[in-house]
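Pilot study result, target chain (391 residues):
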Amino acid sequence: MKAPLLISLAVAGQVTSSYAMDIQGSIGIEQRSFISNAQFPEQGNHQTSLTIEPELYWSWNDQQDAFIFTPYARLDSLDNERSHWDIQQAKWVHLQDSWEFELGIGIVYWGVTESQYLVDIINQTDQVETVNGDRKLGQPMAHLSLIRDWGVIDAFILPGFRERTFAGKKGRLRTPWVVDTDAARYQSSAKQKHVDWALRWSHSFDQWDIGVAGFKGTDRTPILQPSANATLQPYYQQMWQLSTDVQATFNEWLWKLEALHKEEQEQSYRALVAGFEYTLVGLAQTRYDLGLLLEYNWDQRGLDAPTPYQNDLFIGSRLAFNDEDGSSLLIGLARDLEQMSYSGRLQGSTRFGQHWRLNIDAWLFHSNVDTDPLYALRKDDHISVQLAYYF
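Predicted structure:
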C-alpha cells in the first residue's frame, strides 16, 4: 500500500504546484458629514456606509491563465441609490510573450491628468461612490493586447452598456431634480445591448509615454432631460471620439496632456487638459517629496458644456511622506476663469500596521451662477472618513 500512496501524493503535489489561488480584499466603514444644511428636507447631513470588496485570483498553466473575480458592495444609511453592488472584475486572462487576452468583466483606466479624467471612456462612472468620478462600474469586454517593439495595440469589443449611477431623493451631491434611472432613453434601438468598440496604440520610449485611441459606441455621459413628473431622464447618445494622452518625464518635471475630438448626435467639439507636476525631492533635506501641480482645462462648448471644466485652472500640491505606511496628501483647487466658481479638495491616506488604512476626503464647492454645474453642489461641502481593513 505504500507505493500507491507515494504515487498519489506525488501526483497531488504536481497538480497543486500548477495551480495557485489567493483571496484578498477589504472591508470598510465610511462616515460622510456635510458642513451645510441640506437643500431639501428629505436629505440628511450625515451618512454612514459599509463597503466590502473581496478579490479571488486563481491561476493555472504556469500562471499563463488566470481567473479574477472582484465583487463590490456598499450599504448606505441615507441613500438607497448609494446602497448597491457591482461586479468589478470577473474575467479570464491568458498571457503570452507577444500578446494577452481578457474575456469577461473588467476595468480599464486611460489618462494621465489629475483634475479630470477626460479621455477615460471604456468604463461607466459610478457617480454615487466618489465626487471626482474615479470609481468605475465593471464593463463586459473582450480585450486583446498585441505587444510589439513599436508599441502595444489594445483592441476592445464591449457588448453591453452600463448606465451611470445617480444619488437618490434622500442622497446628497445631486441635482435639484432627482434623476430617474429607470426611465433612461437611448438613441440606438439596441439600447443597453449595443456593441461598442475601441482601439488604442500606446508606446513608451525615452522620457515619453504616448497613447492614441478611438472609441465608437454609446456615450458614457448622459444628457439629463426634464420629464413630466418633475424628474430628470437620462438620454444616452451614440458617439465616436479620437483621443490622445501624453506624459513626459524630464528630471523633476512631469508634463501631461489629454485631448479629444468627439462627434455626437447633434454636435462635435474638442476638449483638452494640459499641465505639469514639478516635484521637490527631499523637501528641506527631509524624506518628504512635494509635488506642485498646475493644469488648464478647456472645452470648446464653453458655458454650454455640462462639465464644470470648460475654462478652468487647477492648482494643487501632492505630499509623499515616503514612509512604511505609504502616507500621502493631496490638496487642490479648480477655479472657473469665467464664472469664478470653484471646487476644492483634500485627499489623504495612511496605513496602520499591516491591515488597516485610513482615507480622508474633503470637498468644498462655490458658485453663484444657477447655470453652472457646480451650483447644485454649493451646499454640499463635506468631509468623508473611511477606515478599511485589508485581508
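One observation from the pilot: The chain is about 5% helix and 55% strand. A full batch analysis is planned for the follow-on phase.
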